[in-house]
Specification:
The chain has about 190 residues and is α/β, with parallel strands linked by helices. It folds into 2 domains: about 110 residues; about 60 residues, no CATH class. It has 8 helices and 5 strands, in the order αβαβααβββαααα.
Length: about 190
């Protein structure tokens, strides 16, 4: 996974994150996912107004950062973007082992860690709206995703967590078919 410097953090994200960092009193780890990661780390050109955070640690310091940057906060009103603590998200079981720091050394207290591209793709499986499918196709092109790794991680680390795994089996197969079709045209 690519790491980036602060020059690659687009505005208003850079200013927003700098203000969060300045307000933090201790180190805070944000496990990032969603459109923010797809756009800032993998270069997909699409708008996103929130930074989806799966985990914030330590909890007390993280809560203060979340409150400062959440939807409806002063920073949200100022920058028109916000932190969104994703309460319920199904991600592969061992995702934490594969997190990669993005923008290392950019902030004094904030450490932004991104899901790896396979975990990121699989985190979008249940919702499966058009934006999610576009994100997965972008990841398949730019990483490029190894479809066997994607299937294996789904089977071993995610499927058992899902409420309707048969539906998600079908969704994953449709994604794989779309990726293979796109690759066959190249």
């Amino acid at each position: 996974m690519p790491t980036h410097s602060n020059e690659s953090i687009p505005e208003p994200w850079l200013s927003f994150l700098r203000e969060l960092d300045a307000a933090a009193r201790e180190d805070v780890r944000l496990d990032c996912m969603g459109g923010f990661v797809v756009t800032t780390v993998y270069g997909f050109s699409r708008p996103t107004g929130d930074l989806d955070v799966l985990e914030i640690a330590p909890r007390d310091a993280g809560r203060a950062v979340l409150e400062l940057g959440m939807q409806g906060s002063a920073l949200h009103r100022k920058y028109k973007i916000y932190l969104d603590h994703v309460g319920v998200a199904h991600v592969p079981e061992d995702y934490e082992d594969r997190l990669t720091e993005i923008f290392p050394g950019t902030f004094k207290h904030l450490r932004l860690l991104a899901l790896d591209p396979y975990d990121l793709a699989l985190s979008k499986l249940e919702r499966n709206i058009q934006r999610d499918r576009d994100d997965v196709l972008h990841l398949a092109r730019t990483v490029p995703l190894d479809l066997e790794v994607l299937k294996d991680r789904y089977q071993k680390e995610l499927r058992w967590q899902l409420g309707n795994p048969e539906r998600e089996d079908l969704t994953l197969q449709l994604w794989i078919d779309a990726i293979e079709e796109e690759r066959s045209k190249q």
